[in-house]
Amino acid sequence: MQIEELYKRCRLCPRRCQVNRLAGERGFCGMDARIFAARAALHFWEEPCISRETGSGAVFFSGCSLRCCYCQNASISGGEAGVEITIPRLAGIFLKLQEQGAANINLVTPTHFAPSILAALKLARQEGLSIPAVYNCSGYESVEMLEMLAGWIDIYLTDFKYADRELAARYSRAADYPDRAAEAVGEMVRQTGPAVFDGDGLMKKGVIVRHLLLPGHVKNSRDTVRFVYETWKDKVWISLMNQYTPMEAGLKNFPELNRRVTKREYNQLVDFALDLGVENGFIQEGPTAKESFIPAFDGEGLR
Questions:
Q1: For residue 49, what pLDDT is reported?
Q2: How far apart are CA 19 and CA 15, in angstroms?
Q3: Mean pLDDT, to the nearest integer, of 240-249?
């Protein structure tokens, strides 16, 4: 199917808004068919097998099909920040990041621009792009859209935010999130197979499932980790994150989230995962809930 057709009645994400983004209409993601991004630069704060010492070539796209109330990147997920770029320009950005020594091309919040990103990847591959492509997403994906990416994405770096449908509805307006995320991870694993690393520990292929612990919601985290591990075992790597940073602007109606995760809460989750048998995983140590995880979305690398 042509790119234009995919944007004409948009069903790229599970919300299936069916708006005509080619005509300037905007669905839940807040974006029309033009590509907008807020930053393209080396990024050093992903999992070690993604960033390594050289950095991941991260392109942060504007807009989002999930838009959680606690989003750390709210300035771009809401579409307030961003620079318009074309498909050829995006391909050039990928190649420039490779020239800068990026370990991979890290596509951050790409779902609503997937057809254009795929076209840019194909063009960049023709022009010499050889490093892995990382699809860094919320987990709220449609299998049909992911199937379109098969063979072009090497690594899926996906969230699995909720096992609890009520929490998914309250914080992300997506009660079906657990079901859609489960379907999505299944497709991701089908595409990549078991993880592959090079001699330096850099991931070349595979699936990393991230879970961000929310304050006061250790049970949801335990249920999520249990589901992911019992479903896919060592076919995925599980990344347990304690970097939750309360963003006051989005939490006026969610006072229970207006604090950081405690060390005790996070240790409970890590101990649970270890007792469950998780071996292929990542944990965060020290005070990670800080501004270094939220880069400046100032258009760097796009103009």
A1: 98
A2: 11
A3: 91
Please tell me whether 71 is known to bind a ligand: yes
pTM exceeds 0.85 for this model = yes
User: Does residue 17 have a known ligand-binding role?
Assistant: no
Q: Classify residue 152 by its DSSP letter.
A: T
Q: Quote the CA–CA distance of 53 and 32 in Å, as a whole number.
A: 36
Length of the chain counted residue by residue: 303
- pLDDT, tens only, 18-28: 999 999 999 99
In terms of phi and psi (left: phi > 0; alpha: psi -120 to 50; beta: otherwise), the region of 24 is left
Fill in the DSSP letter of residue 182: H
Cα–Cα dist 239/226, whole Å: 13
Q: Which amino acid is it at 218?
A: V
Nearest to 247 by CA among 269, 214, 210: 214
d(CA 63, CA 75): 9
Residue 289: CB atoms within 10 Å = 16
Which one-letter DSSP state was computed for residue 262?
Answer: P
Give dist(CA 228, CA 145) in Å, integer: 21
Residue-level pLDDT at 280 = 97
**Between 287 and 70, the higher pLDDT residue:** 70
